[in-house]
Every structure is written in C-alpha cells, then in structure tokens.
Design a protein that fits this description.
2 copies of one chain form a homodimer.
Chain A (H helix, E strand, L loop, with lengths): L3 E5 L3 H13 L3 E5 L2 H11 L3 E5 L7 H10 L8 E5 L4 H9 L4 E4 L4 H30 L17 E6 L3 H14 L2 E5 L3 H5 L9 E5 L8 H10 L7 E7 L3 H10 L3 E5 L3 H31 L9 E2 H18 L3 E8 L2 H8 L1 H17 L6 E6 L2 E7 L3 H16 L3 E2 L6 E2 L3 E8 L6 H17 L5 E3 L5
C-alpha cells in the first residue's frame, strides 16, 4: 500500500524530516516550499496525498486546501494539515476547508502512518470508482459532473455506541442541536450489529469500552467485515493520551477519530464531512449501476428495450418450464402511426408513444414485462398466464387506447390512436421466446389484416 | 482492514491457537474440524478468507481447496494452506489446487499477518468489482458467467528485475522452458518504471537488491503508486531466512513472494496463478465498461444509438464553435423500408439495415459519427466539414447504396434499396445540434418529396 505523497512546508528542516520518514516506509515523496508551488505540482503530478503545513507566507494551508477542494481535478486528493498550534478553532477551520485530518507538530509517527495508510486505502478505492464513473460520463450516460463533496447533503442516520449512558446523552445533545441527522443508540457490539441490512446507519460514533462490556475496536472490525456496513462512516472516540488506540482504529478501517474531551463543533464537523464523503462514494457507485441500467431502458418511454425483453423472456420461459406453467406474449403495434408523425410532427408522435407506454403499463400487472421493441412496436410478457387470460388483458389494453383519444401537445386537439395486438402462449419445452414471439407476431399480422384496432390469437392451424 | 476468517484444522490446539492469534488482531474467526464442516460453513457464511490445514481425515485440504475453487459461489474466497511438512511438491500441489499461499506450521506470525492483510485488501477490491459485474450480468449485458480463474489463459509479459545477470538468466531459462510468456529484463527501478504506459507488463518478478543499486521494495512501492501498473502482478523473491522482507513486500502491495533458492516449478506455478488472477480482474473491469458501452450502441447494427449521437453532436458543436469551424449533419432514411419488411420478412429487413450500416460507415471518415436514430433512420455528424463537402459525402453514400443491390439472406435474390439524405451545416453559435438536425430533417423531407433516392441540401429560405 504505497503511494505518492507531497509534503508542503516552508521550513526546510520540516520538509527534510518528513520526507526521510515517509521514504523509509517506501512512499514516493515530493516536496514544495510554498502554497503556489504545491498547487502547481498537484495539478501536474496528481499525488495520492498531500501533507500540508498551515502557516506559510502568502498562500496559507487553509487557502491551498480550499482551492484544491474546489477544483474537480484535485478535489478527491486527501489532505492532512499540520500545525504547531493545538487550537480547536484551527482544527475546525482546517476540517471545514476540506482537510481529512489535522496533525500536530512534531508529528507523532504512529498516528501519521496509520492515517497515511488509511487515506491511501480510501484513495485507491475512490480511484477505482471514479474511473468507472468517468467512463459512464464520457459515454454521456449521466450528467453528474464531478460534484464537490462539500456540496453534498450531510443528513443521515448516525449510530452512537458510547461507554456510558451519560456520555451517550452528551453526544446526543451535541448532535441533536447542530446536525440534521437521525440518532440511534447501541449499548454494544451485539446491538449495533443487529441492525437489519435494509436500514444500516450511514455513520457510527464508537468508543473503546462499550456499555455491554464489548470492545469498540472489535465493533469497528465487525462493521468492516460485513458487506452491508463496509461503506459506512466510522468515527472512533478515544482519550487524548491514547493515540495508539486511534492508530489501531484507523488500521481496522475507521474513517476518522476524535480525541476526547472534544469541542462539540469538532465532532460535528468530522461527522458532517464523513457523511458527505459516504454520500459521494454511494453516488459514484449508483452512477455506474444507473449507467448499466440505461443499456436496457428505452429512453423515450422509460420501458425496457428489446435487448432486455429478449433476455428476460428467456428467464420467464425457463421458470415456466420448470414450474409447468404457461406464459403468454402480446405483440402490439400502433395503427397507422406513420400518419401521426406525418400529420402532427415528430414531437406529437413521441408524445403519443409516451402516453401509449403509460396506458399499456397501467393495464398489466407488476410482474408482467412491458418493452418497446422499436418504433411503434411493443410487447408484453405475462408469466403464469394462459391464452384466455392473455386475450382478456389484450382486450383491456385495446380498449384503454381506443376508448380515450390522445392529447396533442400544446394544443386542445386530440389524436385518435388505436392498436393491433397479437396474442400467443408458450406451454411446452419447445416454445422458446423466439417461437412464441413469432407466433404473436403472426397473430398481430392477422389483426392488422382484419382491419386494425383488433386483437388476434395465434392458433396452431393459422 | 478486518474480516471474517475460517480456520480449518482437525487438531483442537491448532484451532484454538490460531483463533486466539487472529482474534487479538480483531479478525472475526470461526473454526471447523473437518473438510466437510468447512465446506458447509463456507457455503453458508461466505467468509473473507480460509486458513486450511492440509492433512485431515477423509477430505484433505487439497480436495477442499479444489472444491472451493470449482464452485463459482466460493471461487473468489482466498485460501491459505498450512502444513507441518516443508516439501516443494506439497507446496506446488496446494498452489495448483488454487491456494493463494502455503505456510508452514508452526505458523510465523509476521508472515501470517502480512499475508492475511494482503489477501483481505485484494478481497475487498474483488468484491467491489464483482458487485458491479453481477449487476451487468443481471441486466443481461454480458454472458460472462462467473468463470473459473483457473480456466483463464496464463500467457502475458513478465518483467524480471533480479540482483545479478546470472540470477536473471537462471530465471529466464526456467520461465522460457515452462511458461508461455514474453520476458523483459530490467536492471533496476529506473529501467522498470521507464516502460511506456501503453505496454506495461502483466507481471513482475523482483528481488531485493537490484543491479543498478536500487531497492526492490522501493520498486514495488513505485509500481503500486503508478496508476498504469497498480493492477500488475508482483512476485517478490527473497532469501529463506528473511521472512521479514517478504512480509514488507506483501504490505507494500506485492501479490506474492517466493523464498530463494526455489524449485523452478514453484516459481512457474506462482507466476501462472498470478497471471490468471490479473486477467480475471482485468476481465471484471472491462465487463463493466462493456456493459456501459452497450447503453450507447444499437444492438442490430453496432452503430451508436440516438442517445450517444445527440450527446456527441453537442461536443462536436462546442468544438466547432471554439475553433471557428463548420460542422455538417446528414439525416438518412431508407426509402420504402416498410415494404422490404412486408415483402421479405423482418429477418431480411434486419439484414438490409446491417448491410446499409456497413456501407454507410465505410463511406465516411473515422472521425465522423455514424448513428442509427431508430427504425430505418440514420445520421452522420461530420466535424470540420462545410456544406459542399458534406453534399459530396451524401452523394457518395447515396450511390454506394443504390449502385449495388442488397443480398437477401439465404437466397440468391437481391433486394433493391435506396436512401434519401438531407444535408445541413452548422456555422454559428446559434446552430445547436437540435437546430441543425431539424434542418437536415427538413431537407430529408424535401428529398423524399422529390421522389426519393435523392439528396437535398437545407437552404435558409426553404
């Protein structure tokens, strides 16, 4: 777990010292003397992490950090600020500027290395997520232009696992007043881990000795080992004189720690910043999933597309075969749709297709698959449905389209629309989706020939 | 970096000892007495790692490991085998069964923990990749059913960074005879890192002291810090009495290590297994990218779809505006395509669309964007192209379609096909893709009205 670290300090001894320390642990270290130089190197070299002195001539550390966090190209690079002054206001200002941590000089090795390892791990995971996100953005699959972590909403659910009821109420008071979060309490590892997978908290605040006698570090470890809670934010609370514990917590996967007794504002800033970070990574994850879903969705109507329909019908068919049930297919084609486009324009045509999709979807069950195969052609796959029921559904669809004329957009005119529907059923092992679709297609052809606005059922003899 | 570990050993003392050790480091540990019990627990609990004794009654460790690696549900879980007998054949057999490492009892803590940390890190990354892969598989975006890592091809490029030319030739001899890999040599960190980003090796074999005086551990660190080589396999070669170095290498991100002097077969097995693993993770990564690409590709013709075309045209337009160049759009519509479908069937219609796409694509430049907008409607966006050149291209396309009749599939018949094309140009800042597309669409309408198989150029007055 190595990486490239930039050390920024205007005092030469500090630079040399930190560089030597980090190099011994096999990190690749670069140094910068001023904020300006730092910004330039970061833009060009994109290091994996920045150790940033607070007090420097001209551009101070706070300003450099803010500038880094505002630039989408560098916002994801972790920043650890360093200062000789241990003042809560300074720390809070640094965290609010977007720093990941705030260390005091002379920097304690144990905490430094634990923090560096922890941030490197996080960085590698983010890089992996960002890479995929960049691909889907390049392909135009979403417009989520690299948002600032700072702009994300910091609400969420926070679980408090403190060492006493007094401590817990003190935390609760602090957080209730200052944050927009829901709070849950846990008296120990068992209660905390008992949370159902569907509603795990976004963040945890955890002390070493929990009320039920269990060990807070073990709770961190268990949360990280469980897939549902692996991505949650975890803030470890420990005594000012026990930095070793804080380092262990970071190595076990805690996102951050705070030394007790703490300034209430500092706890809030840390929680808020972790909640935002959690949201950012959740967003990156869901962007990719959304991108993948777009490959199977018809953008105009929001229905599934042909690719997904054919895939899904195979699944329906296999399930039918194994359960010995029938499944039915409707093939639908809007009548004389070309005339709608020619007469009212493409916008009106699109609006008709959208309204048709809405009516079609609301005429079938949730388990039925509705897809647009292309142009004005649609299909519905009905699992566990015999021919008679399918014909009934088809007739209901036909009536819902024919029964009420469609609105012409930006106009009080209406557009008369009708649909022809072919129905077929799959019953045996030979009835692959392909075969049943062709049969429904054939029935659709008959419905069209019979004068349109008709349903037709595929019969073997036909 | 915690996780759930299953310890499998038939000797109670061994189980208790290992469980105590690992629990102290905050891992969640379960134990099993027999291979059968282990398989049951693994199926049910899906631990993050298995420590597996070799010699057990009935099902021995080799068999259990093979069974785990054959089952797609458990193949991704890392396995470390343990034995009291230090025999190369045993080690090779274990690695060939799919084990990630082979440790000797009594297990050395340093090596054990370094290996556990290393495998946990790898497991978390794989879990992340597998999750995304599972989504795209569920959506039917690819059929890459969870392949066995063991079935993947183990060819590739391997870079050798040894401590002397003698050592290097010895490795070369061993690998040349036994593996299907290309070998490159590096005399140290600088040469190894000099490799161009486009052709980085799949795997590296690295010793501590390199020929140019640089440190092999630093090379590992630098390889892991560089995005292009972050995913490469790295095997560290170190002396039998220097386990501490091996542990450092694993912590720095080496994929595996081997103790020198080694059995040539063992080196080969380890390289082969790392090459396969690298290919597996590459495959998982590219599956997601491929899945995302499918969201912008028309499955029938392989051309870009409407979603991508509109997005891409915006980019072309913005570039034109900033460079002060023109861009042109062709809108194309096959003439009387409905008759092709009606007369020859949908299969013939699809074949015509595919052949049309091929001819269209080969009539334009590589930088031109060709897309199928839906049905029989296509478009081409031509960056840095004025109206006259665009009209020339349109005429070339028209001729290439009209000039040679299309083949009817499974038949010697041909199908006459023609296309109508509308041409327009965007020149000013007001010419958004939307506007220019509408103009080309209008020109297309004129071409159709003029009797089809025509090109028509949009004129402001029209």
């Amino acid at each position: 777990m190595s990486g490239r670290i930039l050390v920024v300090d205007d005092v030469p001894t500090n630079r040399v010292l930190l560089k030597a320390k980090l190099s011994t642990a096999y990190y690749d270290v670069q140094t910068a003397e001023t904020g300006e130089e730092a910004l330039e190197i970061i833009q060009k070299e994109q290091p994996d992490m920045v150790l940033l002195d607070v007090i420097m001539p001209r551009l101070d550390g706070f300003t450099v950090c803010e500038m880094l966090k505002k630039d989408p190209e560098t916002a994801h690079i972790p920043v650890v600020m360093m200062t000789a002054l241990d003042q809560p206001e300074q720390r809070i200002r640094g965290l609010e500027a977007g720093a990941d941590d705030f260390l005091f000089k002379p920097v304690d090795d144990l905490t430094l290395f634990a923090r560096v390892r922890n941030l490197m791990r996080m960085k590698i995971m983010f890089d992996e997520l960002r890479l995929r996100d960049a691909t889907s953005r390049e392909l135009g699959l979403h417009n989520f232009v690299e948002e600032h972590v700072e702009d994300l909403d910091d609400s969420g659910t926070v679980m408090l696992a403190a060492s006493s009821t007094d401590e817990c109420s003190a935390w609760r008071d602090v957080l209730d007043q200052r944050l927009n979060v829901d709070l849950i309490e846990a008296d120990g590892t068992r209660t905390a881990m008992d949370c159902p997978a569907s509603s795990v908290p976004d963040a945890y605040v955890i002390q070493r000795d929990l009320m039920d006698g269990s060990d807070g570090l073990r709770l961190i470890s268990s949360l990280r080992a469980r897939p549902e809670t692996r991505q949650a934010a975890i803030i470890f609370v420990t005594d000012r004189d026990d930095l070793k514990l804080a380092a262990s917590a970071l190595d076990l996967g805690a996102s951050d720690y705070i030394l007790s007794p703490f300034d209430p504002n500092e706890l809030c800033v840390r929680i808020r910043s972790q909640l935002r970070r959690k949201k950012y990574s959740d967003r990156l994850r869901s962007n990719v999933i959304d991108g993948l879903k777009m490959a199977v969705i018809d953008p105009l109507t929001g229905l599934y597309n042909r690719r997904y329909a054919m895939q899904h019908m195979t699944t329906i068919m296999e399930r039918s075969a194994s359960e010995g049930t029938e499944f039915s297919i409707l093939m639908l084609d809007l009548d004389n749709f070309k005339q709608v486009n020619d007469r009212y324009g493409h916008d009106a045509g699109d609006a008709v297709l959208q309204e048709f999709a809405r009516r079609l979807q609301s005429s079938v069950r949730g388990i039925d698959l509705v897809a647009r195969l292309g142009g004005e052609e649609f299909c519905v796959a009905l699992p566990a449905t015999d021919l008679e029921s399918a014909a009934f559904v088809a007739e209901r669809v036909r009536t819902s389209i024919h029964g009420e004329p469609f609105c012409r957009p930006n106009s009080t005119d209406t557009i008369p629309v009708t649909v022809s529907i072919g129905v077929s059923v799959g019953q045996g092992p030979g009835d692959t989706p392909d075969v049943v679709v062709r049969q429904a297609d054939h029935a659709l052809y008959v419905a069209k020939n019979n004068g349109r606005n008709k349903i037709s059922i595929f019969a073997e003899a036909a």
